[in-house]
Fold:
Amino acid sequence: NFVLTQPHSVSESPGKTVTISCTRPSGNIASKSVQWYQQRPGSAPTNVIYEDKERPSGVPDRFSGSIDSSSNSASLTISGLKTEDEADYYCQSYDGGNMVFGGGTKLTVL
Amino acid sequence: EVQLVESGGGLVKSGGSLRLSCAASGFIFSSFEMIWVRQAPGRGLEWVSYISGRGSVMYYADSVKGRFTISRDNAQSSLYLQMNRLRAEDTAVYYCARDFGRPGIPDRADYWGQGTLVTVFS
Structure:
C-alpha cells in the first residue's frame, strides 16, 4: 500500500488563505483521484473535494483542490478563512482494492 | 435525505467478537457500494472494508483481514461488520459511509454516519 503525507498542523488568520498539502512519496499522485474531508471536533468527516478539484453540492467555493505533478502532491486551498473552518482535514486516494487516508492536518484559525 | 446510523458498538474483552450494524435510508441502498472507516482515539482515519452493491465483492485492510467480515442486506438497507478476535488496537469509532465513485473499488465516501465506539479491553 502507498502512503499519503500531510503536515501535522497549519494555522492562519481569519480572512486569509491557507493551503494544505498531501504528498505521495511513491507512485504517481495523478494516477488516481484525490478526495478531501473536513472533520470538526466531535463530528463525522464530510467530503469537501472529490476527484482532485470538484466540490460537492453545498461546499462553498472558498474550498478548492488541485494536483501538482511536479511535486507529486495534491493541495486543498481555503480562501477567506472563517473560524468555522477550524477542523482536521484529510486527503484520501486509492489503489486497487485499498482506500488510503493521509494522516490529517489540524487547521487552526486564529 | 441520506442517513446512515451505526449501532452495535460497546465494550468487549480482547479476543472477543462484536457485530456492528449500519441502517441506511434516503437512497436506493442496493445501488451503492459501502465502506467502513475507523478512527482510534486522537488518531486519524483508517479505511477498514468495502463491499459492492450486490455484496459480491469485498475488500479489507491488511490490519483486519481474516478477522473482520463485511456484509449487507439490501432488503433491509443494512450494512454489517462482524469483528472477531478483537485486539486493543481495534479500539476506535467505526463509521459506515456510502461509496460514490467508480464501481468496483473503494474510492470516495460522500455520506458518513455519526459512528459507533468500540472499546477493546484486556
Notes: The first strand of chain B starts at residue 3 and ends at 7. Chain B touches chain A through 22 residues (CB under 8 Å). Chain B is about 0% helix and 50% strand. The mean pLDDT of chain B is 97.
